[in-house]
UniProtKB/TrEMBL annotation:
<feature type="transmembrane region" description="Helical">
    <location>
        <begin position="272"/>
        <end position="291"/>
    </location>
</feature>
<dbReference type="InterPro" id="IPR038377">
    <property type="entry name" value="Na/Glc_symporter_sf"/>
</dbReference>
<protein>
    <submittedName>
        <fullName>Sodium:solute symporter family protein</fullName>
    </submittedName>
</protein>
<feature type="transmembrane region" description="Helical">
    <location>
        <begin position="453"/>
        <end position="474"/>
    </location>
</feature>
<dbReference type="Pfam" id="PF00474">
    <property type="entry name" value="SSF"/>
</dbReference>
<feature type="transmembrane region" description="Helical">
    <location>
        <begin position="572"/>
        <end position="589"/>
    </location>
</feature>
<feature type="transmembrane region" description="Helical">
    <location>
        <begin position="219"/>
        <end position="238"/>
    </location>
</feature>
<feature type="transmembrane region" description="Helical">
    <location>
        <begin position="155"/>
        <end position="176"/>
    </location>
</feature>
<feature type="transmembrane region" description="Helical">
    <location>
        <begin position="80"/>
        <end position="101"/>
    </location>
</feature>
<comment type="similarity">
    <text>Belongs to the sodium:solute symporter (SSF) (TC 2.A.21) family.</text>
</comment>
<feature type="transmembrane region" description="Helical">
    <location>
        <begin position="43"/>
        <end position="60"/>
    </location>
</feature>
<feature type="transmembrane region" description="Helical">
    <location>
        <begin position="188"/>
        <end position="212"/>
    </location>
</feature>
<feature type="transmembrane region" description="Helical">
    <location>
        <begin position="481"/>
        <end position="500"/>
    </location>
</feature>
<feature type="transmembrane region" description="Helical">
    <location>
        <begin position="113"/>
        <end position="134"/>
    </location>
</feature>
<feature type="transmembrane region" description="Helical">
    <location>
        <begin position="512"/>
        <end position="535"/>
    </location>
</feature>
<feature type="transmembrane region" description="Helical">
    <location>
        <begin position="322"/>
        <end position="339"/>
    </location>
</feature>
<keyword id="KW-0472">Membrane</keyword>
Amino acid sequence: MPLVDSSVLDFVTPVTSKPDILASTTYTEAASTLRLDAAPVDYALVALYFVFVLGIGILARQRISSSIDFFLSGRSLPAWVTGLAFISANLGAVEIMGMSANGAQYGFPAFHYFWIGAVPAMLFLGVVMMPFYYGSKVRSVPEFMRRRFGTGAHLVNALSFAIAQVLIAGVNLYLLGSIVNILLGWPLWVSVVVAAVVVLSYITLGGLSAAIYNEVLQFFVIVAALLPLTIVGLHRIGGWDGLRAQVSGSPGGAAQLDSWPGNALSGFTDNFLSVIGIVFGLGFVLSFGYWTTNFVEVQRALATHSISAARRTPIIGAYPKMFIPLIVVIPGMISAVLVPQMSEYKQAVTADPDFKGDTTYTQALLYLMKEVLPNGLLGVGLAGLLAAFMAGMAANISAFNTVFSFDLWQQYIRKDRPDGYYLRIGRLATVGATVVAIFTAFIASGFSNVMDYLQTLFSFFNAPLFATFILGMFWKRMTPAAGWAGLVSGTGSAIIVFILNEIDVFSLSGQGASFVAAGVAFVVDIVVSVVVTMVTEPRPVEDLVGLVYSETPKSVRTDPESGSLPWYQRPVLLAGIALVMVIALNIFVG
């Protein structure tokens, strides 16, 4: 997701003015409270999951004979596989823990992260943008940027993306290690290193194919973990009616059962401004910026065998995506009213927003697992959490090794080497990125705001990047200089908005400041790009084939066999059905 509540790291690094004593005390209290009574059957299920993960890597190793096989699965995978991998790559620490935390804190307004902040952008990616990515035969999103705007914008995009992926992989590792430490008592460094070695093993062996097939496995493991948790939790609380009744009587009241106008989420007290902030800030700028330009996601679609399959990848992913909140947000809501520690915390923090304790919203899912899951199902739940964190890290590492090898090493350091050379570089980059991620995981342990910091960076860069992409894709006059200037000015304006909010020139709670920063960045990028384009020379139109809509023949943008596909494989029709479904969910549930 583009944004996550800032409490996502609080449960592992408590915010306190006395870090040396109180932090360790609080952490110990949280660990003892959350420690699970795992039985041998639970450990056996977790071990079995690791066996399957490594087995997939060994099998995928047999298919690697070129760099395209390693980095893009030889562009041969079916759409249903890449579609599930597309979603699983996003079901990491942020999605599982952050969205359950938002459910516990906000209730139904957290649905906006899925029905407003994800599905529409995923459909747009499949219908409009994937034909350009796939049809131009680029190997990464930064490579598309280079072909359209030149090396200046490309180098900035590739470097910032590569650095971000290593940092995010480290955060995923740290969250995983911290949770395993709390739940099972394993030392933090053991949890981090074991998880890193497992992910490193199957990606180094099988490349993107191993990552994608493991992501498919991880998707089903995650669902198998969260669906029983939701069902058992609902049963314990008296079903859907019982949930509504108890949530209505809890702090926050019945407003938690209405997704609109979502004032608590957006930070706006005015209903109209709240809706505008959610729709434009989250639903358009941040969401489209994340889903349509994030190579971690786009890479899965590029691994398919045709343009039609590439277009179907995010569209297929949109169908399970719209139902994920039912097994992520709802458990958070259940935990906030069923688990004593969570309900007491919510009462305290509602009465005093500055309240600090050894319980946080981010622990909602963990407390619910401890409360309702028996042994056996507990093992499935643990495997599901491990799957979620490893899926996120694997997606980061597999995207990093592609951008590092093709966009940085091949483009700027060693050109025109044999294909096997870049395959070796990719494997070495995988090892290097994993080692660096281990260290960034421990760096993350010293900062309680790391995840909030990373999400703030996304709001800085994704919004202007999307503005540059969308303008350059549909306006052939836009120049390379405009692409660079728009990115820099858009990012700068978002940083200024962030600083103004931090020094209380204006103050928005919730996600309001990020929504405003994203909107400002988008508008400034567009305005600056237009102005600079008017005073600089455009590229010859013949250089824009496959990069700009008006200059790209339909034959390049479409699969020649698309007309003979059955209705259930036609991207536009599938996207239309998904759009109707998500609109219905917004109307009837919200």
